[in-house]
Amino acid sequence: MEFKDYYKILGVDKSANADDIKKAYRKLAKKFHPDKNPGDKSAEEKFKEVTEANEVLSDPEKRKKYDMLGSNWKQYQSTGRSPDQDWFKNFSTDGQNEFKYSTNFDDIFGGGGFSDFFENFFGGGFSSSTKRENPFSRGRKGSDYESLVKISLEEAYAGTEREISVNGKKLRVKINPGIEDGKKLRLKNQGAESSSGGEKGDLYLIIKTDKHQLYERRDNDLFFTLQVDLYTAVLGGKKQIKTLDGKIINIDIPKETDNGKILRLKGLGMPKSGNVKQRGDLFVTISVKLPKNLSSKEIKLFNELAELRK
Asked: What CATH number did the domain enclosing 288 receive?
């Protein structure tokens, strides 16, 4: 029986911490996963190896036993003892001689799971504690679907519905008011069928909000540019704008309003997703529009005004 170097299998140092081991395992498991390498026996064996290595090195107690075994491997091999003899008892700490094996990972792919090395030292002769369900003992889940759903800013503001067709079945999907651009909606078990008897995949609907001609959304706030004539900007007055829900509101323009001034209208922005009673704010940027094609009388009056300002 050959000694297995779990650190080498995961490509980490013996001083690696739990996060290092987790990252290395995830990277390798993703690379060699059977779903990504259908029919590739070598990839399947590599996947078994990295899973086995992670099972030991990610568990502090297993890792401690393994590290003690590693430096005394030849000594153990020469004893010829059977697996049910607790060879580790002279190395145990805190008076704990019994090793708790905390998983049930039998028969990963239906034809042998852990190696003989693992079974000899982390199986048979040790008592078992609470077992975790093996995710590979069931059929693998079907593939997920993704689909883009475009909505207008008005629909994002008020909420809407879409009817979609999946695998010949029509589904009505509710889109809540205030939904964020890029939000993913999950429809469980509406994806592809499993090829191995597992549950169906999921369907993810990605919300894409169309650009609006007048309004810009930033988080839950709305931004609007309001053109104001020179005379209203100087003398003050009122302007009307149409909100996303179709209402007409009056905007008070203070006298002597500068070009670029921003007016904040509290609570007139987007509803917050999950709490429609709370809303962001509406920010109105004033854009002063200068008069064009002045008449001779207007030019004369502007000259008189300029003289007065001197």
From this structure: 2.60.260.20
